[in-house]
Specification:
This protein is an alpha/beta fold and 411 residues long. The protein is built from 16 helices and eleven strands. 44% of the residues lie in helices and 14% in strands. Strands 4-3-2-1-5-6-7 form a seven-stranded parallel sheet, with helices on both faces. It has a four-stranded mixed sheet with strand order 9-8-10-11, covered by helices on one side.
Length: 411
């Protein structure tokens, strides 16, 4: 039985991870969890899984959580409460909990960086759903992976698809998973994208886009932030940078393909021109399960993929005018160093402002571009962790400054 720690247990990735643990109780045991502010759901998760330690990102909520747990029948918690922790130290403790064999990182955004690094430094294997860890701090994370022997197993559907396809290809003799070493015989990666909420909208119609429009994904059920990223195609741009770090491949070898059905989750092209693809219904449980069970596969009762039911699979190239965030991501990746951290932080802040209806949808790429332009003169190619965290704060501040001073924003 594999012991699991879950970072972000009340979010989309976390809840699905715990559902898998419930479905396969003989295979997985949840020993540690962390959460944000959803205490009612967290209490239910504690009742079901009885973890040894629980951490809240917000220290101030600990007394309320403790009271909620004391009100429960002691039998429901096997007569003992879990160890309760708070703040950054608490998250890091959950990430490095000694009994955990695999850490599932479901914390959204750069907030997941420090606990992910704590897990890496503790030598834990990670199911990585927090793409920002590598995007913002790839130059910091890769050396830590080599030092600790920790392995990153990609839990995003696209990177999981690539990882699954690569299982049948040769690896360098001394390679570890996800240390930036190039894979022999790998010529290209094709990341598939649904096109997001606005895939059937014209570029001119985006002027009318609302928060409700941008957070209504046609295929996937995800959190609001990543759904907006899908609408701008920034999620795919971020995945390009992540793929560069995960699989040691150059940016000109990573392509984005619009695939509206979201059945092919990504493809690899090998040196002999063969193309391998991983297919499945648009359901995040499959890539999460593969991380949890790797290197084995578990038999599931889940719905079989019936291609005759789908009838056709279609593909087309993304429109760079409609999706400027995609171009910004490639440019940031090629610039390297701290530029991807600026891109990521500026995007997080701009999306948050959009969700609060303080800016328009079309302002998101404009604000990101301004932050990246301002950073060019201070680009650092070999940042340490403190410098990455500092530049993250700087980029968010730049976005706020641009919003405050601009008279051209759409809202």
């Amino acid at each position: 039985m594999k012991a699991i720690s879950v970072l972000g247990s009340t979010g989309s990735i976390g809840t699905q991870t715990l559902e898998i643990a419930e479905e396969f109780p003989e295979k997985f045991r949840v020993v540690a969890i962390s959460a944000g502010r959803n205490l009612p759901l967290l209490v239910k998760q504690i009742q079901k899984h009885k973890p040894e330690v629980v951490a809240l990102a917000d220290n101030s909520l600990l007394p309320e959580l403790e009271e909620r747990l004391k009100d429960l029948d002691s039998k429901e918690l096997s007569s003992s409460l879990p160890k309760l922790l708070g703040g950054q130290d608490g998250l890091n403790t959950v990430a490095s909990w000694d009994k955990a064999e695999l850490v599932v990182t479901g914390i959204v955004g750069c907030a997941g960086l420090l606990p992910t690094l704590a897990a890496v430094r503790a030598g834990k294997d990670l199911a990585l759903a927090n793409k920002e860890t590598l995007i913002a701090a790839g130059p910091v994370v890769l050396p830590e992976l080599k030092k600790s022997g920790s392995r990153l197993l990609p839990a995003d559907s696209e990177h999981s698809a690539i990882f699954q396809c690569l299982q049948g290809t040769p690896w360098p003799e001394n390679a570890r998973l996800s240390t930036g070493l190039a894979t022999p015989g790998l010529r290209h990666i094709q990341l598939t994208a649904s096109g997001g909420a606005f895939r059937d909208w014209s570029t001119s119609d985006l002027k009318k886009a609302t928060v409700k429009d941008a957070t209504s994904h046609p295929n996937w059920s995800m959190g609001k932030k990543i759904t907006v990223d899908s609408a701008t195609l920034m999620n795919k741009g971020l995945e390009v940078i992540e793929a560069h770090y995960l699989f040691g491949i150059e940016y000109n070898q990573i392509e984005i393909v619009i695939h509206p059905q979201s059945i092919i989750h990504s493809m690899i092209e090998l040196s002999d021109s063969s193309v391998l693809a991983q297919l499945g219904w648009p359901d995040m449980k499959l890539p999460i399960l593969y991380c949890m069970s790797w290197p084995k596969r578990l038999e599931t009762p889940w719905r079989r993929l019936d291609l005759t039911e789908i009838s056709q699979l279609t593909f087309n190239s993304p429109d760079t005018r409609k999706y400027p965030c995609m171009t910004l991501a490639y440019e940031a990746g090629l610039a390297g160093g701290t530029m991807p951290a600026v891109l990521n932080a500026a995007n997080e802040e701009a999306v948050a402002q959009f969700l609060d209806e303080k800016i328009h949808f079309l302002d998101i790429p404009m604000l990101i571009e301004k932050a990246c332009e301002r950073h060019k003169k201070d680009l650092n190619q070999e940042p340490n962790l403190e410098e990455v965290l500092s530049i993250d704060k700087w980029a968010r501040k730049v976005v706020q400054e641009e919003i405050n001073k601009s008279t051209k924003l759409s809202v």
